[in-house]
Amino acid sequence: MITPLHGSRPAEILLVDDNEADVVLTTRCFMKAKLLVNLHSVENGERCMAFLRKEGPFATMPTPDLILLDLNMPVMDGREVLAEISMDKDLRHLPVVILTTSAEERDVLLMYKLRCSSYITKPVDFEKLMEVIRQISNYWLTVVVLPPQHSPKHE
């Protein structure tokens, strides 16, 4: 097992995706990459925001080091989630990687305007998805210095 975050602890990753097959594939990719991560998943933006704000059943969940966010979901889509995260002083420091099937220019532009950290078009082929997960993991969990798990509240 490769321990991300420079060997300090497992990375906490929140996967926000309503497609169960994509969640299973992404989980398999992380396992196959042999990275020590705690992968949490929720199926829509409303539950994502509850997770991030530690509300209800998510009260004891850790703050994620990285959020992998799909755009097209029921209840509250990824665009609404990113808009809400970017306006929340307690959440806007969190890195959000858009991982979606949409390659629409307007989606890409809007997500960057809302300050996403990266925008990645999700491949449908398992081996290509595996490579994308490896690249995400390598960059975000071993190269980048992420904010501390318990970041101080800022105005």
Short description:
By secondary structure, the chain is an alpha/beta fold. The chain contains five helices and five strands; from the N terminus they run βαβαβαβαβα.
How much of the polypeptide forms β-strand, as a percent range? 15-25%
Biggest sheet features:
5 strands, parallel
Q: What is the H/E string?
A: EHEHEHEHEH
Number of helices: 5
How would you sum up the global shape? globular
CATH class: Alpha Beta
Q: Under the CATH scheme, which architecture would be assigned? A: 3-Layer(aba) Sandwich
Radius of gyration: 15 Å
> How is the CATH topology named?
Rossmann fold
Number of domains: 1
Query: What average pLDDT do the residues reach?
Result: 89
Structural class: alpha/beta
The CATH fourth-level homologous superfamily: Response regulator
Give me the count of strands. Answer: 5
Any low-confidence stretches, pLDDT <50, length ≥5? none
The helical percent reads 25-40%
Widest sheet: strand ordering: 2-1-3-4-5
Q: For the record, give the distance between the C-alpha atoms at the N and C termini, rounded to a whole number.
A: 39 Å
List keywords for this structure.
155 residues; 5 strands; Rossmann fold; 5 helices; alpha/beta
